[in-house]
Amino acid sequence: MARRGHRPSQAPSNRPRFWGRHAVTAALANPERTVRKIWGTREALANLQLPPLLPVVFADAADLGRMVPSDAPHQGLVAEVDPLEEIWLGDLLEQGRDDSRPLIVLDQVTDPHNVGAVLRSAAAFDALGIVTQDRHAPPESGALARSASGALESVPWVRVVNLARALDEIAEAGFWRIGLTGHASQTLGDTMGQGRIALVLGAEGEGMRQNTEAHCDQLAKLPISPKVESLNISNAAAIALYAIATR
Fold first, then answer.
1. Distance between CA atoms of 155 and 108, rounded to whole angstroms?
2. In the Cβ-directed half-sphere of 60, how many Cα atoms lie within 13 Å?
3. Whole-prediction pTM
4. Quick one: CA torsion of 142, 148, 154, 159, rounded to 10 degrees?
5. pLDDT, tens digit, for every residue of 181-226?
């Protein structure tokens, strides 16, 4: 897949640190990811196939705990990595031209745990990738990688400057853009048809911005009980992806 270089916001002195078995082993297995250094307990490191030139530091669990946020479940492993190179939207759309995999578009979803969970659902249901804004989305981080449970390494993530223009490009590529919102009059099942779908979700609380809704072909809601006002965005994404996969 064509890429366009490292993100300027991620300087070498501010490399992300991933923790936990799934995030670290997935980073090590990704040929497009550069792992710069790894810390771990002897027990955790004994189970890994490590590149011969990778700097490895043996540490106890308490030392690792001081390297990550409080109470982060590091599982005996911490790795310092380079951010993945960016992907052009056009390249991703070209790659998926001949298949029916859905695309996920996130409008100003800034919580790394939510974005990570959406990535995990995208991997589970074989989505083409996710699209976010560059300035209103979290950077790669240990929390995001942990929530993604390895999916950060396998699901293409495109960052764009202007989401409205990106949605226009997505429509030109043949996607039917469905925005999920609670105030829609129709359910997702009524609107998705059999074509290629770009699923658009907004931030929790605020939802999609008006201009984003205007760039959707259809607005839809999930048929949830009135006992609950709304679902967490990652739960909504997982349910919608399941519905698309089984239509």
1. 19
2. 1
3. 0.89
4. -70
5. 988 989 999 998 888 999 999 987 778 999 999 999 999 999 888 8
